[in-house]
Fold this sequence. Notes:
Distance between the termini: 30 Å
Radius of gyration: 15 Å
Number of strands: 7
Number of domains: 1
Amino acid sequence: MSEVSDTLLSLLLPEGILDYFELTKAHKDAEGFHIHLQEKDLAPEGYERKALESKGFLPESVVQDFPIRGQKAFLYFKRRRWRIISSGFIITRNWELVAKGTRITAEFSAFLKGIFG
């Protein structure tokens, strides 16, 4: 995406979300706006030095966000999972650890906790 598109998208989505997710699809229908986001293939904190293999995604989660221009807004999240090659153990990003870091705001942390627990 272009820098202008990224900036515009970041204004519509919860702050910091584009650090971890990328837009895959967006459309509008009679129900409202539907924005599909897929987790980036970035190793979770603490696993950066391990050999990981992407093992697809968890079932998609949908969240209704703040309205956009008076229309309902639905965010569809596809969270990634990885396999640690040496052990075969399956991992996902720990959103509590992300929230303790400095890359996202308290608002985004609360938003993610509401979605993923």
